[in-house]
Predict the structure.
Amino acid sequence: MQQLCAGYGQRRVLQDLDLSIDPSEVVAILGANGAGKTTTLRAISGTTKREGQLTFDGQSLLGSSPSSTARLGIAHVPEGRGTMGQLTVLENLQLGAYIRRDRAVAADLERVYSYFPILRERRKQLAATLSGGEQQMLAIGRALMARPRLLLLDEPSLGLAPIVAQGIFDIITSINRDSGAAVLLVEQNAVAALDISHRAYVLEVGRIAVSGSSAELKEHAGVRRSYLGY
Ligand SMILES: Nc1ncnc2c1ncn2[C@@H]1O[C@H](COP(=O)(O)OP(=O)(O)OP(=O)(O)O)[C@@H](O)[C@H]1O
Ligand SMILES: [Mg+2]
């Protein structure tokens, strides 16, 4: 995306964002609360107003509704997870595949269960009654059912115990390696985000303040001071 602007009503939140994600890349977005990280993901998935240049596979996304964007292969796991509480785990996963026309859903269900065995055990349980970590697994699993080429993850570790969060980060790495899906990861846990990403952007009040390889950003004095705490 180039010179991408986005906002809500009259309020402009993102100002001329230039950001790119290569196929199979894991890219992290870091930034303080309110910097515009969630808005960036919404601008890509079409769930907020945006203008500028936004392309996927050479095709403009600007006229694309959220559902047609999903059909192009972009899956958005929103902040707060967004699973359907009154449906079971299995029903939520099946819903994730609804945009697909092919019939290979059973194989993908097995793939999701192989990443998250607990979801197989809980498949008949209502999503609303899952623990926070299990709901996050379900939200990611549901996105995988669509076989995305680009996975947008908004704070996947939010509210999770460190060991559960680490498990989620490991699986994000596996998903990227196994399926080649690109990942755009928004995370407060900057240390973990830089560990699992190839490149990263730091957003400050709707603009890109710093960008580079994740290895470079780990050594960047300003990033260390503000986001890594050492
Ligand atoms: N639906 C909305 N309507 C109006 N303003 C909004 C809306 N959603 C977000 N904003 C505003 O846009 C700005 C950026 O919000 P955004 O949610 O993108 O930040 P963020 O970087 O994801 O923050 P956090 O780390 O707290 O999740 C904030 O000032 C916020 O108040
Ligand atoms: Mg956010």
